[in-house]
Amino acid sequence: MRIESVPVKEIKVRFRLRNPSEGKVLEIAESINQIDLINPVTIDSEKNLIAGFHRLLAFKHLDRKEIPCIVREPDPRFAELVEIDENLMVNQLSPLECGQHILKREELLSQLGLLYERGDNRFTIKEEKLSVEDLAESIGHSRRSYCMRKQIASNLHPEVQDLLVGTEFDILTELVKLSSEEDHIQLKVCNLLITGKCTNWKTAFYEAKYDDFKLNRFKTDRVPFNIEERYGTFPQSIMRFKKEDDELSKVVRLVNNNDHLRVQKGELNFGETVIKLHQMNPQQALFSLDYYTREGDLILDPFQGRGTTAITSLHLNRRFIGFEINKLALDRTSEVIRKNMDVPEDHWNIYEGCGCVMQELENQSELIDAVFTSPPYYLKAEPYSKDPRDLCNMTVEEFDQKIDELFRNLSRVIKTSDFKKRKFYPIIITVGTARNGANGILDMDCSFQNIAKRYSLTLWDKLFVQTVNPHLVTSIQRNYELRMVHKNYEVQMVWMKFA
Fold it and tell me: Do residues 128 and 109 touch, judged by C-beta distance below 8 A?
């Protein structure tokens, strides 16, 4: 190291130390005019500026031709800093790439003694050093934006960084959230995303966090109990079930929110609001199964779908049989039950096949304690699958033929109720209505009642469930012009078979 006078115009600022403060430059220039330069600037032997940016600018302001310099030997770290700076300023880096550059940049600057370190007193340290604010401003970021990028590069597991950098999942806010998780959660989320098991961050976070969760089976004393306290309200003919964020709902969402099962069926606000396939509120299933059935009962769901009835039945210490033609839904429900519920294997079974046909139960009768199900709507309202056996792909006439077959089989497999002995074995089915243009309303409630009568089933109870329809705001004008109100209900009907 040596001190020599160097022409001001020959000194090179190869990487951005900080954006200069005009006030500080003028202050230093005034001091130089009065007592000359006390502390020389620092350069390397190739005349790259290491420290003293404001002092150099003050000399330029004063039109001084030479400046005293401490000359150090060339350091390869400066060449690396120049390259990093050019990448940060010129190239379009992803958030993770930017964070990795920032981290390496700070490491080099710290090694060269150009950064304020934790515990430094800026007012007593004579050398010009860089703060976080300086570093952020020098590459065009706010302090917050800079720190977020640094956080993901610092805290994300190296394997996660390697797999996600530059991909469609290299999203700053999501990576910041992920960087706060423990390594095993980070790796699970990353694996779900890159394997395509999850196509968005929200689902991947949810599944990773609930991967090891076990849902405890629900137990209550049958009698005596406070009915309002138990059900949250008095059971009535018109009810609304609020969405809850309880453990049951979270486990049900492991199936329902699967990206490959609950697909988009529409959108609002020019694509800003995505509308996905209908999902039964677990609170409706929880109430109905707890109210109409008893512990140990065998519950049948002919349209098992995405597992709400199955999971809720087992949660309430019932047994369960389901039918599902969508193998992906069947497998996912089975996986969640096995992984997230402590339930004996002989307490449940889901058959791959048509729930109207019930081939596996064709030789059975008086087997089922209760049925709880919700078939698709008329008029192909929701695309649950492309399987031609799926009711969602059928005409109304074909649909009703399959429902006729369903009731014929239900009347055989359901146990016989006895009014005098207060023995009740319900068939509970939730249906809706469909509008068919100039042909008006197609009422599934009416159709199902007529079909059920053919098989001597008695309509025993009826519950109107208030629903939330996302199309309300966009439908107001159309509804008024067509002289019809907005539909916000489903009908849950209960049949019994008496001797």
Answer: no
